[in-house]
């Protein structure tokens, strides 16, 4: 039976509160930390524990689910046909390990490629950004309006620190043109800041679990999401992404079209 958004929202919101309690408990214990692609790309026993919890709970709730998770504990997915969940157990693991702050957990749900719901929880602040295209977006219990349509020069922007540091084309131009820039180290935290109007744009190279929930929520708020080398509705490929107000997005595209 097709689930309503309220049913989905109640289910995922409860999962995330359980995940939050698990994570807070593990912050007081030694972590098992391993590197993935490099010394800044970390995975912990908590990442794997949380993803396994999501996978088991989603399979009970939605027995026909296909689940794509960052740590590979779900399914190998090459299509958005059917019931598809995309999970990032801990987004900003380096922040989680080193700062114990500014990290998120994220879930997005699709039916035959159409977004049905998305959830991003700032774990330490206990702020849940959640919603769906036809139902709007909430921060906890407060319904959000579209952020002010600021231009780039009026906006603080969130950028990938690694790409800014290594002068990936376009990033320094955007940082220089913006009112200011921030590096949060977590896509989920950046999406929450964007939805709240605290930044006017977020620019990074992201994998599906990094952007799925954020893209759904941004679009539901009337924000623009641009993928430079993929179709916007391609949820299964990594891409350089700009999520921004329409004016800031136009300014960024004008800059990056000449510098990328």
TrEMBL record:
Pfam families found in the cross-reference section: Inositol_P
Keywords: Hydrolase, Magnesium, Metal-binding
Residue numbers binding Mg(2+) 1: 70, 88, 91, 210
Entry's Gene Ontology molecular function annotations: inositol monophosphate 1-phosphatase activity; metal ion binding
Cofactor: Mg(2+)
Binding site for Mg(2+) 2: 90
Top-level taxon: Bacteria
Swiss-Prot/TrEMBL GO biological process terms: inositol metabolic process; signal transduction
Keyword Phosphoprotein: no
Protein name: Myo-inositol-1(Or 4)-monophosphatase
């Amino acid at each position: 039976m097709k689930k309503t958004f309220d049913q989905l929202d109640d289910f995922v919101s409860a999962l995330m509160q359980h995940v939050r309690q698990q994570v807070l408990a593990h912050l007081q214990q030694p972590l098992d930390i391993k590197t993935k692609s490099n010394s800044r790309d970390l995975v912990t026993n908590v990442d794997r524990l949380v993803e396994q919890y999501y996978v088991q709970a989603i399979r009970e709730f939605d027995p026909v689910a296909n689940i794509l998770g960052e740590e590979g504990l779900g399914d190998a997915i090459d299509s958005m046909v059917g019931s598809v969940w995309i999970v990032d157990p801990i987004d900003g693991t380096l922040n989680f390990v080193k700062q114990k702050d500014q990290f998120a957990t994220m879930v997005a749900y699709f039916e035959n490629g159409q977004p049905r719901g998305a959830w991003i929880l700032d774990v330490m602040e206990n702020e849940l950004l959640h919603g769906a295209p036809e139902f709007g977006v909430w921060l906890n219990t407060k319904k959000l309006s579209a952020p002010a349509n600021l231009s780039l020069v009026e906006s603080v922007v969130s950028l990938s620190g690694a790409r800014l540091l290594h002068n990936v084309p376009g990033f320094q131009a955007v940082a220089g043109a913006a009112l200011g820039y921030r590096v949060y180290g977590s896509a989920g935290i950046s999406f929450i800041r964007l939805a709240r109007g605290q930044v006017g744009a977020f620019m990074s190279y992201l994998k599906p679990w990094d952007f799925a929930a954020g893209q759904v929520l941004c679009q539901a708020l009337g924000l623009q999401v641009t993928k430079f080398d993929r179709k916007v509705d391609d949820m299964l490929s990594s891409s350089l992404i700009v999520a921004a107000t329409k004016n800031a997005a136009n300014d960024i595209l004008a800059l990056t079209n000449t510098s990328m």
